Write a sequence for this structure.
């Protein structure tokens, strides 16, 4: 019951935010955004096992064109339907990949004992390559978001809140139904990249938001990417350290999804906060901005660390980055 | 059964069972079954590989329609039998009398 009410409230708020934001998007931004679902589908295509890849892509892209051309609603509504569909396609592609890998593993004698595991260099390279793709897509999306005027920017805070709320609801639901998705055992460079990209569908929204909030000069964007790059390295090291401590890893594995959802919601609140103080100056804002950011970052990082790959590292990066820029801006 | 039966699988099967002769498209099914695309396509993939579903392509002229033909699915004879059994089984399990019997029995048996 409580979940239903929560879901209804979030949906209402989300729908309101979406309608306001999309209403403000200009025609040009819309045509750019219209290519986004297809781009997502192309990424998902990589995940599908070779023998069914072309057929799958043909099927899904036909559905996308159908959604874009023949479903009801304004162009913006249809675009959103297409985006949801394409984001789902990525998740679905990962699931198809997993089950195909599992089938192959049960047929072939297992090389590594127990679960397959990616080697260390595959994790590192895969993390960087996967995140590079996510950042590229987010930069494109952030371009679309530049058409949102500064004074309406706070509305974008609903974006992470909606994502977090949705994740929370599905976590609660899975908890009640006793459905526990076991983390994917990934092998190989492609596997690591696949997990990062598939889990990154939500993160694209957060990244894009971070890029939009720090928008401005090329320098600040470059700085943002550098921060991401450094934090990815910190991330890999922290993950490796944590996995070696089994008891900590177990706890985080159990609670990870809750913490990650809470992290998303806190990022939303933080966006409200940050956009509210935007323009105001003073050392107190510098301090509180960074403090709030790092508290959130710590909370989410706990979730993101679990099991090496399967939870979002990105909210942390986004928040750290956002707080960094909040600090810098208010310091001026 | 080789297909793991989850709530989403049941919703999808019920959609197919509503009118077994009708071909269903993916996006249409996400709407009708209330299952997101990320869940639906792995299910379709699985059911297709297990031989419960057969697929086909929409017969349209892409140039005329202005979009490519979509892929559709319908139940095979085997799939029809299996799906009916699954859905009937779920109904039997969740029927009030059956639920009451299952919930009460352990407690009564445990009492001295």
């Amino acid at each position: 019951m409580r979940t239903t009410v929560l879901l209804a409230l979030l949906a209402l708020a989300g729908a309101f935010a979406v309608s306001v934001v999309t209403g403000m998007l200009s025609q040009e931004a819309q045509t750019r955004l219209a290519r986004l679902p297809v781009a997502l589908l192309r990424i998902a295509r990589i995940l599908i096992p070779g023998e069914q890849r072309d057929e799958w892509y043909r099927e899904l892209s036909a559905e996308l064109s159908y959604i874009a051309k023949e479903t009801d609603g304004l162009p913006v509504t249809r675009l959103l339907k297409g985006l949801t569909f394409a984001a789902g396609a990525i998740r679905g592609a990962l699931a198809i990949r997993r089950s195909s890998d599992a089938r192959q593993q049960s047929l072939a004698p297992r090389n590594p004992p127990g679960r397959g595991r990616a080697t260390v260099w595959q994790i590192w390279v895969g993390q960087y390559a996967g995140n590079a793709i996510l950042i590229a897509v987010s930069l494109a999306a952030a371009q679309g978001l530049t058409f949102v005027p500064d004074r309406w920017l706070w509305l974008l805070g609903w974006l992470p809140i909606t994502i977090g709320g949705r994740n929370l609801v599905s976590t609660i639901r899975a908890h009640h139904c006793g459905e526990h998705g076991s983390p994917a055992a990934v092998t190989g460079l492609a596997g690591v990249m696949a997990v990062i990209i598939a889990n990154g569908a939500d993160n694209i929204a957060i990244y894009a938001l971070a890029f939009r909030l720090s928008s401005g000069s090329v320098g600040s964007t470059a700085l943002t990417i550098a921060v991401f790059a450094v934090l990815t390295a910190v991330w890999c090291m922290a993950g490796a350290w944590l996995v070696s401590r089994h008891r900590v890893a177990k706890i985080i594995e159990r609670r990870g999804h809750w913490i990650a959802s809470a992290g998303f919601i806190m990022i939303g609140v933080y966006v409200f906060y940050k956009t509210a103080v935007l323009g105001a100056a003073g050392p107190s804002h510098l301090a509180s901005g960074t403090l709030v950011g790092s508290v959130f970052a710590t909370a989410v990082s706990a979730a993101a660390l679990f099991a090496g790959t399967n939870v979002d590292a990105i909210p942390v990066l986004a928040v750290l980055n956002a707080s960094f820029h909040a600090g810098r801006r208010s310091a001026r | 059964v080789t297909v793991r039966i989850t709530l989403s699988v049941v919703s999808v099967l019920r959609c197919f069972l509503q009118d077994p002769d009708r071909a269903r498209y993916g996006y249409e099914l996400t709407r009708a079954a209330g299952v997101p695309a990320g869940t639906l396509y792995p299910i379709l993939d699985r059911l297709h590989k297990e031989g419960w579903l057969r697929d086909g392509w929409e017969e349209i002229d892409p140039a005329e329609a202005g979009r490519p033909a979509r892929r559709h699915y319908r139940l095979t004879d085997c799939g029809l039998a299996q799906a009916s059994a699954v859905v009937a089984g779920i109904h039997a399990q969740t029927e009030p009398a059956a639920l009451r019997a299952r919930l009460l029995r352990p407690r009564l048996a445990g009492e001295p």
Summary: Confidence is low (pLDDT under 50) at residues 109-116, 179-184, 279-292, 297-332 of chain A. Residues 110 and 116 of chain A are 8 Å apart (CA to CA). Chain A touches chain B at residues 52, 55, 58-63, 65-67, 69-71, 84-85, 87-93, 95-96, 99, 177, 179 (CB under 8 Å).
